[in-house]
Every structure is written in C-alpha cells, then in structure tokens.
# Entry
Amino acid sequence: MKFLAVAAFAVLFSVGAAQAQQNCGPMAAMAQHFADNYGERIIYTAIMQDSKKMIFLANDQTQSWTLVIADGAIGCIVATGNGVNMVPTGVSL
# Structure
C-alpha cells in the first residue's frame, strides 16, 4: 500500500512538468512502445479523482519504470526511472 502512496505522491508533483513537455500520444501506441523498447508491461492502473487513469509500467528484470496519466485514449508520460522493486503481495515495506 505504501508503494501506491509513493506513486500517487510522485504523480501529484510531476503532472505539471509532463503537461508542459507534452510527452503525450495514443495510449495503445505508448504501451506497445514501452513493451518493445524497454520490456515494460502494465503493472497496475488506478482511476484518479478527476477520472483520469494512472498507469504504471515496469520491467522487473531491468528495473526500468514509466508512469503515465491517460485521459481517454491519450496518455502523457509523467515520470520515468530505474530501480523499481516488485514487492509481492502481503510483504511489509
């Protein structure tokens, strides 16, 4: 649960930067791009208060990750990075 809270916190402080840079495009094409080029797959999605969808993609082997906010079929990259650690369900942080 703490992991989700950290991701949500990152979104709140990164959305303005992502919108300013306009790293946006069709969500289906983005998901395919991150799968093909980085081996990232969608780990989880969450509906935000404004009905936009937060999408977290990650590669557990390379530990790369991408956070996308989607409004309908259009997604915008909010943040990317390295060092993601997949935490099994039920494990305390």
User: Anything to note?
Assistant: Residues 1-6, 11-20 have pLDDT under 50 and may be disordered. The chain is about 35% helix and 35% strand. The chain has one domain: 2-82.
